[in-house]
Specification:
The chain is mainly α. It has 9 helices and no strands. It starts with 13 loop residues before the first helix and ends with a helix.
């Protein structure tokens, strides 16, 4: 089952969390823009195709390539938002029910992954099977986060701004514990908790920026927010590509910037 010994996901740095939050926000704003400005069925099909093609490209390469990895994350952000929205709007499933269902699905993925591989560490993603588990978990976290953010903003009537503050506070506390806690298992579990929380933080913030004043937003528009976030993502991913700062290296190997400085 092993194809290579190179880990195909990035090292966890501050830039990982910055780009992750940006992609979650962009996924929300882009999905909403597409669904409301073109035929929603066409939007869902396009999102599915974009997700499928980017994921196939990720599986094709045998090492971590920043733009490919983050392209998949962006497409999952868009596709995951569409899945959560279709579940509620088209199928009529209440946000509380869909949030619970996506949480159960995520726990199931983790349970099967841990039982099969003996670890949930992202530093072990160097076989095809582990990569499949990894991306299945990522998809579940995006759908869960979208449903949870919408549930607090609408069902619990907190609004987009208060939802952003709520999940932002939870994200900060979980990230602090993740940095301070000892023990590999605890750190792995806290990492995934922080990862799950990035989704409702980004989604709620994007909704707050893009939605109209009538529904508690700033009114900048989903399209404008999506473009702005996209430009920021391109900037940071470009930096990661040039610097190599989030690529796992062998002892003594230089980063891209270190080699250029010579």
């Amino acid at each position: 089952m092993a194809r290579n010994a190179q880990v195909k996901v990035p090292e966890i740095t501050i830039f990982f969390w910055i780009v992750k939050l940006l992609t979650t926000a962009m996924g929300e704003s882009t999905s909403d823009f597409l669904v409301y400005h073109i035929n929603p069925y066409v939007a869902v099909v396009a999102g599915s195709l974009g997700f499928g093609l980017s994921l196939a490209l990720q599986f094709f390469v045998n090492r971590y390539v920043p733009w490919i990895y983050w392209l998949v994350i962006v497409m999952i952000g868009i596709f995951g938002t569409m899945v959560a929205d279709v579940t509620h709007i088209v199928l009529g499933v209440p946000y509380f029910v869909s949030t619970t269902a996506f949480a159960v699905a995520l726990v199931a993925v983790f349970a099967i992954w841990a039982r099969s591989e003996g670890t949930l560490s992202i530093h072990s993603i160097y076989t095809t099977r582990r990569e499949i588990f990894y991306w299945a978990a990522i998809i579940a976290t995006f759908a869960l986060g979208t449903a949870a953010g919408d549930m607090t903003a609408t069902t619990l009537d907190l609004g987009y701004f208060d939802s952003t503050l709520l999940f932002g506070a939870l994200f900060a506390v979980a990230a602090l514990f993740c940095a301070l806690v000892r023990g590999d298992l605890n750190r792995i579990l806290l990492f995934w908790l922080v990862y799950v929380l990035t989704r409702p933080v980004g989604a709620s913030c994007a909704d707050w920026l893009g939605k109209s004043h009538q529904v508690g937003g700033m009114g900048y528009g989903d399209g404008t927010v999506s473009v702005a976030l996209g430009l920021l993502i391109v900037f940071f991913v470009g930096y990661l590509t040039v610097s190599g700062i989030d690529r796992r290296r062998e002892p003594g190997e230089l980063t891209g910037l270190e080699a250029a400085e010579g």
